[in-house]
Amino acid sequence: MRIIEEIDEMIETARGWLTRGSVGFIPITNELSMHAGHQALLVTAREHCEITVVCLLRTPLSFDASSDTTMSTHSLEESLRLLTASDVDVVFTPRWEILFPAAYATYIRLGGSIQEALVPAHCTDNALNEFATALGQLLLIVRPDIAFLGQKDAIQAAIIHKIIHDLHIDVSLRLIPTVREHNGLAMSSHTLLLSPQEREAATLLHNCLLLCKNSIEQGVDDAPTLTQLVHTYIAGNEHITLLHLLIGDPETLQARDKVIPGTLLALKARVGKNLVNDNIQWMRDGSWRL
Fold first, then answer.
1. Pathway of this protein (predicted)?
2. Please, which of 7, 119, 189, 284 could form a disulfide with 262 given CB 3.0 to 4.6 Å?
C-alpha cells in the first residue's frame, strides 16, 4: 500500500492509471477511525475496480461529523493499519492547508436547490463552497473512474453528483446501502462518542425513518404530514435535537411536497454534543435503500 501526502505526488501517480485498469475512489471525510461501513465500501470497490484509492481528509467544516472533534495521529495511524490489511493500493492523506494554501482563490460555488437545502441547516454558504471545492479537487487530483460512497453519505453524494454533472468530470458515482449496528444505528466512528443513554436515543432517528417508510407504503404521500410524524416521534427526548429533515430529490436535494419513488428522506440531529445523520431512500423501482 502506498501512502501519499503531497498533491504533486498524487497527480503524478494518477497519470499512470490508464495502463493499469479502472480506479475506484473512496473519499472519507471527518471520520475518526475506520469501521464496518468503510470495509463494505472497500469490498465493493475491489470487486468492481483493479485499483482502489482511499482519501482520508479531515476538514475544519461541519457536515457529517461534529466540528469539535479532531482526527488524532493515533486514529490516522490505526486507519492506515486497517487499510493495509484491506488490500488498498493508495491512501491519499492531504492536509487541509495543502488543498487551500494562503493564495488559494478558485472555489466551486453551489447554488440552486442544494444551496437552499444545506444552508443554513447544515452549514454556512462559505463552508458549503469550501467543502464542494475540496471534493472537486480530490476528483481532479485522483482521476478515478468510479467514486464509492455509502447511503449514509447521501448529502455528500448529492454534492459530488452536482460537481460531476456541472463540470463534466468523467467519474461515475455509486452508492451502497448503509451498514448498521444491530439496533439500526448507522455505522459511524462518531457514534462511539455517544454515552449509552445517547446511543439508545439515537436509535429513534432510524426508527422514525422506518415509520415514514411504513406510512408511505400505506398511502401517505404528503411530505408535511411525514415531517410532523418525525417531529412528534422525536419530541420530548432530552438527548435529541432535530436540526433538519429533508424530503426531496436525492440528486438535487430539491424538497418535494409529495413523496414519489426516487425520494430521499434524510435527517440531521444533535445527539448530546455530536451530530448524527441518517437517511433512507425510496428507489425508483419501488424498493427501499435502508
1. Cofactor biosynthesis; (R)-pantothenate biosynthesis; (R)-pantothenate from (R)-pantoate and beta-alanine: step 1/1
2. 284
**Rounded distance between C-alpha atoms, residue 289 and residue 263, angstroms:** 11
CB 233 within 8 A of CB 269: no
Cβ-contact 278, 209 below 8 angstroms: yes
Q: Considering the domain boundaries, does residue 286 fall inside one?
A: no
SS3 26: strand
Report if residue 289 sits inside a domain: no
Q: What are the two backbone dihedrals, phi and then psi, of residue 265, each rounded to the nearest 5 degrees?
A: -115, 105
- The number of beta carbons lying within 10 Å of the beta carbon of residue 19 is 6
Let me know whether 37 and 93 are in one domain.
yes
Distance, in Å, from the CA atom of 240 to the CA atom of 265, rounded to the nearest integer, reads 18
Give yes or no: residues 275 and 195 share one domain: yes
The structural domain count of the chain equals 2
250: number of CA atoms within 13 Å, CB side? 21
Strands (E), 142-232: 146-150, 172-176
Residue range(s) defining the domain that contains residue 150: 2-176
Residues 165 and 53 in one domain: yes
pTM: 0.91
